[in-house]
Design goal:
Layout: H1 2-8, H2 18-25, H3 30-37, H4 41-46, H5 50-54, E1 58-61, H6 65-76, E2 86-94, H7 97-105, E3 110-114, E4 117-121, H8 127-153, H9 155-167, E5 169-180, E6 187-189, H10 198-218, E7 221-227, E8 236-237, H11 238-249, H12 253-257, E9 262-268, H13 275-287, H14 294-301, H15 319-325, E10 332-338, H16 349-358, E11 366-370, E12 373-374, H17 376-384, E13 391-399, H18 404-411, E14 419-427, E15 431-432, E16 434-437, E17 452-455, E18 458-461, E19 463-467, H19 468-474, E20 478-480, H20 490-503
Parallel strand pairs: 1-2, 2-5, 5-7, 7-9, 8-9, 9-10, 10-11, 11-13, 12-13, 13-14
Antiparallel strand pairs: 3-4, 5-6, 14-15, 14-19, 16-20, 17-18
Helix pairs in contact: 6-9, 7-8, 9-10, 10-11, 11-15, 13-14, 15-16, 16-17, 17-18
């Protein structure tokens, strides 16, 4: 009798009102809620509310078998599948170079920051550190082999397509990239990882193909698609975009693409990402005694010259335009072109010419163009076809012919414009256009920090932001100069560093 009384007096959540259970769960983390749901079947169902579902809203995916299978299980769950709204796919590069160096030299790199200086030392490593390095090296090699096997048999595309098909709809599908150098599963940003850049491009292109193919197969409805928007020093070559289109066409990608409302795409000039081409180049290098065999070396490292036939082939140029034509309902468009060539990427003016000639997006309201080569007529044509754009951002635009004056004048006639950001506008053969106001009395610009750097004959204003009021009052009436060279300054160093980070080369 005493045992029965004691048992019945123990407080239980089973009979508590659902509102109180929700209040309790709102103060718990995912681990605690999961443990609570294991208590009994009734609590498992009662704790599966909005708080629990919120932990599944955003899914990080690195395309390993276990991650893909986990996503499939979540997608198939009757309550959790509908909670997934955002998927971020990471193109992971397994970089063994530092571990190989450590195992070979029995020394490790130690980087120290002392004020503005960086100091690198190479102390010897002991037996325990070598054993750990070998273990980490083997893990990376195993992961890389697994990655290659999935790509060969197509299981990465199939598993992702299965998960997307069950999910049915997503708010955001984002592709980013990171580097795994064996540091306890810590992924490094592509911009800071001390590794060769070519493998990043190769994997980025592969993952782009995997994700786009999975979208086509699954017919998932995606509202926002971003492709390496936030990953610096990482893009998909325009050649690879063009090469992917026939594959997507055979699986009716256009039907799924009509649902995309926002696209951000970071593309690049030609980089060799085809495994067979790279293997052939390496074989050719091993058979040539001359160490200065330039063409083979360029293919091996990923860098091509601006006069290389592969870099200027016509297949490099139409891919982005043809992709955009399959997304007729875009409202937001962010395009970025990264320069990987040795020399000038001026020939890639054809990329934007194709876009201007073939693409009309009737619903477009926000437009960002970054690091593109354009001519006056193409830029005017594209802006004219999208006069309802309300937010326009132009970063590092290189005019190959014509003048900025007609373009800036046209912007004042676009009545829907409420925000214009201009950064680093380049004139044909005359350097950068200074955005300093011709009449300071009519301008609200006050020399904002990091929007200019000093030159010998005055400030070079490289960045300005205009509201709707400023557009009409100032009408983009700029000085145009200065014409003298810059004088060394912290502002100039920050400007040139930011430009190389955004525009290349890597």
């Amino acid at each position: 009798m005493l045992a029965s009384t004691t048992k019945s007096s123990i407080p239980s959540l089973d009979g508590v009102a659902q509102e109180l259970v929700d209040n309790i769960v709102d103060h718990l983390n995912l681990t605690s809620i999961s443990s609570l749901r294991l208590a009994c079947r009734r609590l498992r169902d009662r704790c599966c509310g909005q708080r629990y579902k919120s932990f599944f809203r955003q899914q990080a995916l690195d395309l390993t078998p276990e991650r893909l299978q986990r996503l499939c299980r979540i997608a198939a769950h009757p309550k959790l599948g509908s909670a997934v709204r955002v998927i971020e796919v990471t193109a992971v590069v397994y970089d063994t170079s530092e571990l190989e160096r450590m195992l070979s030299t029995k020394r490790r790199h130690v980087h120290e920051k002392r004020g503005v200086f960086s100091i690198t030392t190479e102390p010897e490593v002991d037996r325990g550190e070598l054993d750990e390095a070998e273990s980490r090296f083997n893990r990376l090699v195993s992961r890389r082999r697994e990655q290659e096997e999935m790509r060969r048999d197509g299981s990465d595309v199939q598993l992702l397509a299965d998960a997307l098909r069950m999910l049915g709809m997503l708010d955001v599908l984002a592709l980013e990239a990171a580097v795994d150098q064996g540091n306890h599963n810590q992924l490094l940003p592509t911009s800071t990882a001390a590794c060769k850049w070519h493998p990043i491009w190769i994997r980025a292109s592969q993952v782009c193909g995997i994700v786009m193919s999975a979208i086509a197969r699954s017919q998932v409805r995606v509202d926002t698609l971003t492709i390496y928007k936030e990953s610096l020093r990482c893009s998909v070559p325009t050649f690879d975009v063009n090469k992917l289109l026939p594959v997507l066409g055979s699986t009716n990608f256009a039907a799924a693409a009509q649902h995309i409302r926002s696209l951000a795409l970071s593309a690049s000039t030609k980089v060799e990402t085809d495994a067979q081409q790279i293997a052939d180049a390496r074989a050719a290098m091993s058979e040539v005694d001359d160490a200065d065999s330039e063409n083979d070396t360029e293919v091996y490292t990923g860098t091509l010259s601006d006069d290389d036939m592969a870099a200027i082939a016509e297949d490099n140029y139409p891919g982005i335009a043809h992709l955009l034509k399959q997304m007729p309902n875009l409202e937001v468009l962010h395009l970025h072109l990264y320069d990987t060539l040795k020399g000038s990427a001026k020939s890639y003016v054809k990329v934007f010419s194709y876009i201007a000639d073939e693409v009309v997006l009737a619903s477009l309201r926000q437009l960002t163009i970054r690091c593109f080569y354009c001519d006056e007529s193409s830029l005017l044509k594209f802006l004219g076809a999208h006069e309802n754009v309300g937010r326009l951002e132009l970063y590092d635009i290189y005019l190959t012919s014509g003048s900025w004056s007609p373009i800036l004048e046209y912007l004042t006639t676009m009545r829907s414009l409420q925000h214009v950001a201009l950064h680093n506008l380049w004139r044909p053969g005359r350097g950068m256009l200074s955005l300093g106001p011709r009449d300071p009395s009519k301008s609200e610009w006050k020399g904002d920090k990091d929007s200019w750097f000093p030159c010998l004959d005055g400030p070079m204003v490289h960045s300005r932001v205009f509201s709707q009021k400023n557009i009409q009052s100032e009408r983009f009436d700029f000085l145009g100069g200065p014409n003298e060279r810059q004088s060394g300054s912290p502002q100039f160093y920050r400007w040139i560093t930011a430009r190389r980070t955004q525009c290349g080369p890597p």
